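Bench notes, afternoon.
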Amino acid sequence: MPESTKVIVRNAREQDIPAVVEIDTEAFSSEGSAEKLATFQRRLIAFPNGFVILVAGNEIAAYGCSEKRLEEGEHGVGNIPGQTHQPDGRLFRITALAVRKDLQRRGYGSLVLDRLIETAHLEGCRRVVVETAQAQEFFVKRGFQTVQERTQRSVSLDDMSLDLKSINLIP
């Protein structure tokens, strides 16, 4: 794809979900944490502002989705977005973020993360949390810190956190 490809980050729409599922499957099926189409549909309904995609040219290249919580809770595949998302929550949890493998290393993941952090700020959240098995370095470069290391389904995970005050988004 040429360097001049037009790139936009926007809120996801229902018709974007099949492409999101493809990206998610490519990124997470090897560790057993790929999500089903219905989960993404529920995430879009539960928190549309927290579900974004990146379009490069005419194709969906990356996505990120999230939910708000009142407090930390157990992460993991299989949470039901309509039940775990709390509109009044001040904890912003990134539930998934992935870039198509053939389009990685172009800054697309950073653009999606920037949009999610901006959304967290606009939603009045104080902290952003994420769990990751593969992208610790990516999140550390953006100011996240590992708060816990754990194993789930034989996969090593880091629970990571970013205090929005630390990046001057919260006065």
